[in-house]
Amino acid sequence: MSAPDNNAPLPSAGRQVMGEIEDRLVRSVQARYAENAEITPEKVTEIIGDGDPVEYDGWDQAAEDRMLARWEASPRKKSSDTIGTRRNNDNPLCEVWRLCLRFLKQAPPIMLSPINGLQFTGERQTKTSSDLFTVAACQMMSKLFVHPLWRGDYRPFVDALIFAAFCRVGGKANINLSFRWPRSCPVIHALNAKLRELTKSRSPLPNTLQKLHRAARDNVIGSGATESLFSEALYHIGKIATIDEVPLDTEMAQIRQGIVPFQVKDLDAIKKALDEMASSSNRFEGSVEDTYAVFKSLGRRGQIPSVKQLRGLDARACRQVFRMSEMPERIPEEVGEANRSTSQARDRSHSPLAQRSHRIPIRSRSRSHSRHRSPDSFESDRDSHHLQERRSSSPAIGGRSSQDSTNGSLAGETYEENVYLPDDGGYIPEFSEFTSQVEAEGSSRKLNPALPSPRVTTGLRPPLSQALETDEIRQIRHEVDKLGTRIRSGETERYRLINELKEDYEKRLETATSEHAKAIADLKSEQAQTTALLTKFSEHFTRLDTKQSETERQVSEQGDLIKTLQEENERLRKSAQAAPSQASEPERSPTPVEASHSDVASGDESSQQSESLLSYLARKPEGVQLPRVQARFTITAIPSFNGSMRERNHNMPNEPGWRDYFP
Prior knowledge:
By secondary structure, the protein is an all-alpha fold. Among the domains are: 32-147 and 284-323, no CATH class; 426-481, no CATH class. Helix content is 57%, strand content 2%. It contains 23 helices and four strands. The strands form two sheets. Strands 1-2 form a two-stranded parallel sheet. It has a two-stranded antiparallel sheet with strand order 3-4. The radius of gyration is 55 Å and the shape is elongated.
């Protein structure tokens, strides 16, 4: 509302301009409040159109019961039941309802539903509220609903949202797109003509939607014509919308069904486009935030609906959507053009069922036929803004138009089988009047066959009652009712089976998920135990490797010692073998003295050998033990000649006769 927060204050001229802009904005918002009276319960019933649906032709109590059964079994009811239990999260949704009812004359669940080719898709869905608008989406929609671009008509807002969402996720998919507003804009006419041509050819779009609109806009501007403000808004939306490189699978499935999924980012693209127009070209008095702030400041509390009323209104609107999806489709295509003026006169009613309150038995068409409506059949609000209070038509009447607009068929009007339309637009009698007329004319022709047929005199198409007898008509209707009952019962059974299959699948999936989680936990536990055992075995193997290395080192050292002992043993053996060969030589017998000297010499040699052996044994490694000698050596004392020398002689026998030689 105020100027940007700068350090330097605005000059007096700037403050005056800003004040004038704010004053104009406040006056325009006050005028909007004055034009749109506060919502009353009666007005809500008129907008939703569910006052007494059973009283309308073609919708009996059986159809109502089937619809209620579908509603009770639908996931949408589960989401609706959570309203009123989310505490502060219900306040933004309540504000969306208040602004949408008062300034767009629509109920949000009807306006933003597949009836109008839209479906909200949250970035994060929960089991209990996946069908409800998120808090961020509610806040953004509240700011956009009161913008002056829509001029109190919900249809341009729906078209802008479809354009923004399709630019993001649609790519080049050909889903029978068409834009309805404003009817006098040459850019919208050119874009619709191109889309109808592509729809008839059943080929994908040659380019993205924003590029197709830009090309039509360039051609119109190049020819000197002027585009509408709405077309300029679409141009800015196309520049801002970001294309998703990988759309969600659920979004692509909805696109293939002709439903455009929208998210908060699409609403934000519309907001940024409108702000860009307000700042660059001064097409609006203020930004989206400024306009919404003025609406908030001038509004008052206590408006309908309250948070306590919200759940009931949401359920009523959703049930109305269910009714619209099951409306019978009986309008022949060839009578659509003749009823264009009648449809345009009744285009401002709010609900398909509300439009059936007229005496003329004309029935609203359901969603599939609503796409055949011509964009030219809708009037811009700026053409009737000063004539009457603006009322938006229902989504079934204001459904998205498509390629067959040239044939003039309109959504929202169907005729009974036994009713014909006079070429001069005169009064259309009902079935009872036709019956009496046929009976009177039949009797007259019997009395005077020369009377011409009414078809010849008036040039009108004969009604079905003139071609068939009353009993035949009754029989045909009976058969049609039976067929319709069978079809509807089949649909009910199919819905029931689908729900049962879905519930069974969810239960089985939940059971399998829990079993898999348990198995995974067991496997993780076993893996942890196996890892602990592997660690223990690894440590044990490491110790065994260390012991093995030590044992191999000891074995190597003992092998070297054994080899050394074997070599010494071999040398001693050879020495022992050489000694007997010397003793075999013929010599004289030594005297006892020589013998003692010889023994002493042998003892010295033996001592030297013993010392050599001990030197080898001294070098043995630690830990190596030699066998012990159990018997003690025989020690003999041998005196010398002078009695002063004593030697050890291990080889001298202690025999008799030797002692005589020693003193």
